Amino acid sequence: MFELFKARFRHGYQAIPNPLKAGMDPAFPGLPVLDKQMDFELLNGVCPTNAFSEQGCDLGKCIFCGACERKFPRMIHFSNDFKMASDDRQKLIMAPGANSLAPIEFRLPSQFRRSFTIRNVCAGGCNACEMELAACNNVNFDISRYGIEMVASPRHADALILTGPISRSMASALAETWQAIPEPRYLILAGACAISGGIFAESPAIDRAFLKHWEACLFIPGCPAHPLSIVSAITQIMGIK
What we know:
Mean pLDDT: 94
Low-confidence stretches: none
Order of helices and strands: HEHEEHEEEHEEHEHHEH
């Protein structure tokens, strides 16, 4: 027993003290910064998801592969800012010259400020976003300290967090899981695949009809979405600062 106490003392406090104010490695590809003179046609020439338009870079489509930055470093570079979630799909477009997205205005009702349970559905994803979501529960990110818990049963959930592009084989399972969550229920989309279909958007194996019927309250970009992006976004809609 004494040896266990000594080991715990040596380990120290491993959790990130405040994920909302955490720093990231400079190499992390986070929020992109676009030059005001960007040429979206040239950028789309190397972008696998055609994430660029006259309005800017659509973070819901971007897979953060960095091909655009390597080819046209004067037009775009990725900062290490992990705070890039939004409560509106249209707000995910990063405009040229901007240094941040519009703030998240949506807030959950007061009964969810101290306890918020979430059921994850992986609808045909590659398992990368699911691994990052699982990492939110580890000792470093410790999402449970905010009263946020990932649950196995939709009957115990307040929200559904969707990962993956929604394959046809998972469409009915997703709908059934959503219907099993008691109201009021909330939908969160994590990762480029969930938000836009990602690189699978044009695949005939995808069925995204579910998102035509139900509106998400939170969009968390990434490929995969980083645990800090997930933690900071969910705590924001809970009203935690």
